[in-house]
Amino acid sequence: MSKWVIGVIGGSGLYEIDGLEGTEEITVDTPWGAPSDTLIKGHVGDVEFVFLPRHGKGHRLTPSTVPYRANIDALKRLGCTDVLSISACGSLQEQYAPGEFVMVDQFIDRTFAREKTFFGPGMVAHVSVAEPICSRLSALAGDAAKAAGATVHTGGTYLAMEGPQFSSRAESHLYRQWNCDVIGMTNMPEAKLAREAELPYATIAMVTDYDCWRADEAHVEVTNVLEVMAANTAKAKTTVAQLAAVLQGTPRTPSPQGIETCLDYAMITAPEARDSSMLAKLDAVAGRVLGS
Predict the structure, then answer these.
(1) How far is CA 132 from CA 17, 33, 62, 262, in A?
(2) How far is residue 203's CA from residue 222's CA, in Å, rounded to a whole number?
(3) What is the 3-state secondary structure (H, E, C) of 69-84?
(4) Which of 130, 134, 26 is nearest to 83 (CA)?
(5) Which of 31, 39, 209, 256 has the most CB atoms in a 10 Å sphere around its CB?
(6) CB atoms within 10 A of CB 26
(7) pLDDT of 172 higher than 70
(8) Burial class of residue 18 in the structure, from the number of CB atoms within 10 Å of its CB (0-12 exposed, 13-18 middle, 19+ buried)
(9) d(Cα 34, Cα 65) in Å, to the nearest integer?
(10) For residue 164, is the peptide bond before it cis, meaning its omega torsion is within 30 degrees of 0?
């Protein structure tokens, strides 16, 4: 591949991105249901973008009801080569202050009420998520965020909780003992599904609050989060524009982790035991290896 097609999944507060040319709204049907909303496709110079608001316009979907499989399938179906998640989060460490961005490189998945794989009975596969983030895409997005004026921290562990409630103080302290850096509700199973779809994935975690572990500070409230979120959203939109500028004229090369071919040795089910209806559902995410 030599052309960038960046799928941007906008989290809380980010329901559109600015500066796209030749935009069109696209409704995508997937075997996993409808995605969160219509997708917006456009370009900045020779870099294409496909934007999807994770919670839908107007923030209609809870973290648990986001159709993660449909969202990743739709981005893959529209030709995305890479996926950038832009997500609000809480900070579990003093050095990550509200208003700052963290380019996470690891996840701990504590969600439990979501479908976490495209595969299943009739077509079993096991992909590695030892390195869940594409280091190349994360570095490019981090540089873009710095150019947009954000304070950016490189590396960190994102604790994905089920929600929709915020943490108890005991939970917040527990996650700090696990050396987690930020906490959010939406990047899992999204990152796992992107890996199954052979899509390099990176996260910009935009800090809105200190969760509830600080004894000398009031616990997190939505009103406080929204105030910081507004400023973060402006920086996020500028970050996308800066990313487009960074990618202009830069040919796309494969991810360092070999993500685009990670299904080559992940399929377990013998060809004669594969379920045809399951294979049909995998036409977009695994068509490269299944011959769809």
Answers:
(1) 25, 25, 23, 12
(2) 22
(3) HHHHHHHHHCCCCEEE
(4) 134
(5) 209
(6) 15
(7) yes
(8) exposed
(9) 12
(10) yes
Lowest mean pLDDT among 6-15, 127-136, 220-229, 257-266: 220-229
**Separation of alpha carbons 94 and 169, rounded Å:** 16
Amino acid at 15: Y
CB 57 within 8 A of CB 15: yes
Q: What is the pLDDT of residue 1?
A: 47
Domain boundaries, the chain: 5-290
Nearest to 17 by CA among 45, 46, 39: 39
Q: Are 229 and 13 in contact (CB under 8 A)?
A: yes
Which are the contacts of 64, defined by CB distance < 8 A and separation ≥ 6?
111, 113, 114, 162, 163, 164
Task: Fill in the DSSP letter of residue 220.
Answer: P
Catalytic center residues: 209, 211
Residue 183 β-bridge partners: 90, 159
Separation between Cα atoms, residue 207 and residue 25, nearest integer Å: 30
CATH H-level superfamily of 5-290: Nucleoside phosphorylase domain (3.40.50.1580)
3-state secondary structure of 234: helix
List the structure tokens of 67: 């159709």
**Pairwise CA distance, residues 249 & 61, whole Å:** 37
Interatomic CA distance for residues 17 and 204, integer angstroms: 15
Residue among 185, 226, 202 at smallest CA distance from 98: 226
